[in-house]
Inverse folding.
């Protein structure tokens, strides 16, 4: 990277700005962490530094994880089951469609039109389908089941998996696949044995983005579940109703809800820009 | 680029069929069902009789709809302008060979994939009026606390801050990626011509990251129209209707008041508003996407 040499004062200003930006970025998480470690009496006091300003305790975490297993552990496992299943299904569907769009030329509708149509699903507000979806799930007896959440989240994440994989397949050289076809492989075998292993990074990032979006989804989860299949996002929302402003529990749940997808996000940093812009900007 | 396959169209269709069938079943069908509901009356979550456009007339003459419309539009405008501007500033700032860029980039990915509803709740703690850190700090500095939750204006500000906090890093990462792909020669040439850094920005940097900027604005516009989780968690739509967005109204009308017809009418109006916004946008920036 070429840059002219900066004067010292400019460098200092820049570093100050960077420190402010970093503090701004991590403050909410830091506050959640220390609130979860505070005794109720310390929560509403202005204290930032554990051990120095207040005595930290693991009591809140212990209560949440041992006495409230049904809510908290149940919420985490529902979120996990739903997010993994939805990501797996969306990935399977997205791989097939992504490969089809990258490699074949469709006649009746043009490839670009099909891709745009799939992409346009992201442009539809979830509120547009929430009421009919609720009625459909009620009709099939799927209210308060993980299956209802899996169905809706696959729908929301298909545009990501299709677009990410379409781009990934599109960038592979054609020769390998062509020689596989000449050797008698069917297009499906070519996809599975030749192309798929080569797009492993794209598969991982598509899977993680689908997992995270499903894990974070709230509107549908809130409407479709109430006791047996509540994922973590709904469990946090329940803290306030049942326990008033017990912020020490809100923050433990908030952290449990935020940690899994964000850890995964850091693993795919390189692909995240591309994934979240549905391939419009290369990271 | 297409490859030739021996068996013609039949098997190709099988590749895209699952995606298309899935979306027809879980998007197009619910949308049509929704249209049907919006033209019918209902009682206890059951459809009764055809009422034509009556639900739309009721919604469009309801002050709560227009209130939610204004609130949603406010959030969209603030979100798009503030996230893009802050993201661009940060990207320009961090597009420098200074230590710590990679750490900041890593940290920036965290808000992107954190659940908005969780962000809303942690912000509720931070903006809490009696004993939240912000008001505690203001009081400690000898000022008055701000009514973040109970004042209509400040409640909107709190929601906007939470939303911008979550999405400015998105704009930052996209724009930083674009800035880093600007070839160095462009800048070297500008330096040789002794152009001021502002002019370098306007004439070299901006045109090079135009595509990324347009993408950020488009995606944020689309996503911001959907806003529900943060106001739900942070202010529960209040005080009064101050932070109740259109999505929020669909939920309260349809499932709390069990008025399916009006709720689906609102959701269709939301779709129309969003489609208009994105259509206008595509008309202006069509070239970027071709």
């Amino acid at each position: 990277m070429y840059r002219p040499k900066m004067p010292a004062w400019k460098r200092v200003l820049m570093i100050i700005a960077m420190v402010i930006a970093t503090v701004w970025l991590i403050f909410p998480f830091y506050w959640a962490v220390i609130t979860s470690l505070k005794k109720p009496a310390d929560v509403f006091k202005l204290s930032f530094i554990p051990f120095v300003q207040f005595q930290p305790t693991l009591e809140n975490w212990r209560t949440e994880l041992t006495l409230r297993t049904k809510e908290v552990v149940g919420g985490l496992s529902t979120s996990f089951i739903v997010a993994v299943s939805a990501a797996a299904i969306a990935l399977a569907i997205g791989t097939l469609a992504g490969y089809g769009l990258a490699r074949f030329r469709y006649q009746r509708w043009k490839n670009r039109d099909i891709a745009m149509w799939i992409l346009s699903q992201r442009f539809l507000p979830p509120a547009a389908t929430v009421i009919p979806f609720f009625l459909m799930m009620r009709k099939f007896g799927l209210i308060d089941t993980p299956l209802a959440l899996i169905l809706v989240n696959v729908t929301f994440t298909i545009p990501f998996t299709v677009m990410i994989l379409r781009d990934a397949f599109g960038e592979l050289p054609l020769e390998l696949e062509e020689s596989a076809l000449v050797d008698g492989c069917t297009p499906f075998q070519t996809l599975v044995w030749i192309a798929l292993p080569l797009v492993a990074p794209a598969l991982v990032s598509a899977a993680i983005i689908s997992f995270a979006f499903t894990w974070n989804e709230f509107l549908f989860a809130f409407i479709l579940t109430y006791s047996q299949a509540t994922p973590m996002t709904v469990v946090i929302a329940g803290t306030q109703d049942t326990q008033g402003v017990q912020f020490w529990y809100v923050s433990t749940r908030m952290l449990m809800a935020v940690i899994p997808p964000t850890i995964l996000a850091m693993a795919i940093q390189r692909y995240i820009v591309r994934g979240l812009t549905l391939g419009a900007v290369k990271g | 680029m297409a490859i030739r396959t021996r068996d013609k169209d039949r098997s190709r269709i099988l590749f895209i069929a699952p995606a298309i069938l899935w979306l027809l079943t879980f998007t197009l069908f619910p949308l049509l069902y929704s249209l049907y509901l919006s033209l019918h009356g209902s009682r206890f979550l059951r459809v009764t009789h055809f009422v034509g456009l009556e639900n739309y007339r009721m919604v469009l003459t309801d002050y709560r709809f227009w209130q939610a419309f204004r609130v949603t539009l406010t959030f969209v405008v603030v979100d798009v302008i503030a996230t893009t501007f802050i993201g661009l500033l940060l990207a320009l700032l961090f597009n420098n060979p200074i230590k710590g860029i990679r750490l900041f980039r890593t940290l920036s990915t965290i808000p992107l994939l954190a659940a908005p509803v969780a962000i809303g709740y942690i912000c509720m703690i931070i903006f809490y009026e009696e004993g939240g850190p912000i008001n505690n700090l203001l009081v400690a500095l000898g000022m008055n606390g701000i009514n973040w939750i109970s004042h209509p204006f400040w409640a909107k500000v709190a929601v906007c801050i939470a939303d911008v906090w979550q999405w400015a890093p998105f704009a930052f990462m996209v724009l930083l990626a674009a800035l880093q792909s600007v070839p160095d020669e462009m800048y070297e040439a500008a330096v040789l011509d002794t152009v001021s850094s502002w002019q370098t920005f306007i004439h070299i940097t901006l045109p090079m990251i135009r595509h990324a900027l347009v993408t950020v604005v488009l995606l944020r516009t689309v996503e911001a129209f959907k806003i529900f989780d943060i106001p739900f968690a942070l202010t529960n739509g209040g005080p009064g209707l101050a932070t109740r967005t259109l999505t929020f109204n669909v939920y309260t009308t349809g499932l709390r008041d069990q008025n399916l017809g009006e709720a689906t009418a609102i959701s269709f109006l939301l779709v129309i508003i969003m489609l208009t916004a994105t259509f206008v946008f595509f008309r202006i920036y069509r070239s970027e996407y071709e």
Chain B touches chain A through 110 residues (CB under 8 Å). The domain at 54-289 of chain B is CATH 1.10.3720.10 (MetI-like fold). Residues 135 and 141 of chain B are 10 Å apart (CA to CA). Chain B has a mean pLDDT of 86.
